[in-house]
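Amino acids appear as letters; backbone shape is given numerically. Here is one record.
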Amino acid sequence: MNIKITGTGSYIPAQVEKNESFHNHTFLNSDGTAIDAPNEVIVEKFKAITGISERRYAKPHLTSSDLAFFAAEKAIDDSQIDPETIDYIIVAHNFGDVKHNTIQSDVLPSLASRVKHSLRIKNPKCVAYDILFGCPGWVEGVIQANAFIKAGMAKRCLVIGSETLSRVIDHYDRDAMIFSDGAGATIIEATNDNGGILAHETASFTYDEAYYLYFGNSNNTDVSSDTRYMKMEGRKIYEFALVEVPKAMKACLDNSGVDIKDVKKIFIHQANEKMDEAILKRFYRLYKTDIPEHVMPMSIQKLGNSSVATVPTLYDLVKNNQLENHSLTKGDVVIFASVGAGMHLNAIVYKV
């Protein structure tokens, strides 16, 4: 028995927010003082570092669970399964459903329960729950689904990553330009087909690193201190990721028994273009080998950072030949890797 991804789906919101729309923003330092640079310069420097030229925002009437449902429908259709045969629905997110122009997170009922309700699944044996694991949530959900199937607790799972980060950002913070909305979904199931999940690796660094991402006050000191926004220690996260993510990827690949030269694609969480490129360089340096051409697909330039949705959405795009110079064929070996709030990180070696 092998455990494979038999269906994928993604939902990419239609609303495009280009970098130029930030030219009229008021950007402030964390102490509330004005940033001493024109917005055009701030935005251009941001693009040079992150690679982001535009991002996607969900329409006002949609929530994260709606996006998750749309992606799930596509994954179920792609796998051609009966949704009543799904044993687990696992939804990774960070902030629940946040309605447009509100500040309250809604997680009652869980987003997974909402998705199951929207899918009209009657089977009570289909267990629906959420996972809070920062940006690596979808990867960790796949690892959990793999464990359930190996343990005989399930045969088929629906794993989704969905987020509307545009609704929890501080618009006075330059980091607000990084984040976006979206959802990606996968069907994970037992199969007699060759390949599947070959190895996985997970770690949580919390001793010094737990609060690298956190909820904090607006950079605008006139905003009520009762209202909190997603904040991050960007430099610390960058340095942490460059050290720890390549090591986790190497441990995972070594455990799989696959040679580095046989890796076709590496799907890294779309957090920052320069950071992902640096992670890739350090990873291949550990094997003292050159980086192959077109080994790392990127979507952040157009889609921004949608947290848990980035990796499954990117995989769905490549699987469906929607990214130039990137495709997959049966038997290809790929690596999924992510890092985020916690600080958590994980990796999977997977044979298509």
The chain has a mean pLDDT of 96. Residues 234-256 form the longest helix (23 residues). The first strand starts at residue 2 and ends at 11.
